[in-house]
Design goal:
Layout (H helix, E strand, L loop, with lengths): L1 H25 L7 H18 L14 H4 L2 H10 L13 H14 L1
Helix pairs in contact: 2-5, 4-5
Heme C (HEC) binds next to helix 2, helix 3, helix 4 and helix 5.
């Protein structure tokens, strides 16, 4: 019985590895910095559908180099209160999550 379990464990452990490999081709890697990692999580969950996995745009604007167009303050303001068809996130995200996603967009996209 003991010996028979080993191949099953090996087979199971291969599944998450395969799933990870599949994910990494769709989305950029999760940063190791804890605040950027939080920003990445918020971005992938709430923003990527409109702004693209890598900020390339879609229904929402391209956000690559957004740090050259908006000051930090303007950036937080757009995400907090929305603008035109960009939704407001004041009642959806905590101020900490907004800061994290703004930092992720400015530094990592
Ligand atoms: C339903 C689609 C949608 C979602 C979801 C969305 N956005 Fe947007 N976003 C837009 C659109 C559309 C605009 C352009 C608004 C305008 O024309 O003024 C925009 C604009 C922006 C801008 C301003 C860019 C610039 O160059 O002025 C920022 C920053 C931004 N979004 C961040 C975010 C963040 C952060 C999230 C997730 C928390 C998010 N967006 C989620 C659609 C979306």
């Amino acid at each position: 019985m003991r010996l028979a379990r080993t191949p099953l464990l090996v087979a199971l452990s291969a599944v998450p590895l395969g799933a990870l490999a599949a994910c990494s081709s769709d989305a950029p890697q999760r940063p190791s910095d804890p605040v950027l990692a939080q920003g990445y999580d918020v971005y992938q969950a709430r923003c990527a559908a409109c702004h693209g996995n890598e900020g390339e745009g879609g229904a929402g604007l391209n956000l690559q180099k957004v740090e050259e167009r908006l000051t930090q303050e303007q950036h937080v303001e757009v995400v907090t209160n929305g603008r035109s068809s960009m939704p407001a996130y004041e009642s959806v995200l905590s101020p900490e999550e907004i800061q994290a996603v703004v930092r992720y967009e400015r530094e990592s996209l």
